[in-house]
Amino acid sequence: MYEIKVESHFSSAHHLLNYKGKCENIHGHNWKVEVYAQGNKLDNSNILIDFKVLKKEVNELVEYLDHKDLNLLDEFKNESPSSEFIAKFIYTKMKEKIELISRVDVWETPTSRASYFE
């Protein structure tokens, strides 16, 4: 099995719904996103998927999230945009374009990460 990973970043605001504590108030993060692709077959160049293809798709998606209040985006209406929920959102959108997507990690701080995989 082969695995590759690309990273991207975005900054955004959010607040958690149904939560009691500081995070129920609007606040922001400089999010780090890691997207993994896995497969057991390489192409004729011995590449699983070109890094630039994976980076392009990730960067287009995080550009959509960058400098937004996530709670105001249609995809997050009436949902609590937790790190876990954001990881699943990115995973689902990426999987629609690239079948080899295997996991997404979303870091809201350098020491706090949520992952989504199937």
Structural notes for this entry:
By secondary structure, the protein is α+β, with helices and mostly antiparallel strands. The chain has a single domain (2-116), classed as 2-Layer Sandwich (Tetrahydropterin Synthase, Chain A). 25% of the residues lie in helices and 36% in strands. The chain has helices spanning 51-65, 83-97, and strands spanning 2-14, 27-39, 68-69, 101-109, 112-116. A five-stranded mixed β-sheet has the order 3-1-2-4-5. α1 (51-65) packs across α2 (83-97). The two termini are 16 Å apart. The mean pLDDT is 97.
Secondary structure blueprint with pairings:
Elements: E1 2-14, E2 27-39, H1 51-65, E3 68-69, H2 83-97, E4 101-109, E5 112-116
Parallel strand pairs: 1-3
Antiparallel strand pairs: 1-2, 2-4, 4-5
Percentage of residues in helical conformation: 25-40%
- CATH homologous superfamily heading: 6-pyruvoyl tetrahydropterin synthase/QueD
- Biggest sheet features: 5 strands, mixed
Q: Let me know the number of strands.
A: 5
- Beta-strand portion reads 35-45%
Low-confidence stretches: none
Provide the structure class: alpha+beta
Distance between the termini: 16 Å
Number of separate structural domains: 1
| Sheet with the most strands: spatial strand order | 3-1-2-4-5
Helical stretch count?
2
Overall geometry: elongated
Compute the CA-based radius of gyration: 15 Å
The CATH topology name reads: Tetrahydropterin Synthase, Chain A
What pattern of helices and strands is seen along the backbone?
Answer: EEHEHEE
Q: Whole-number average pLDDT?
A: 97
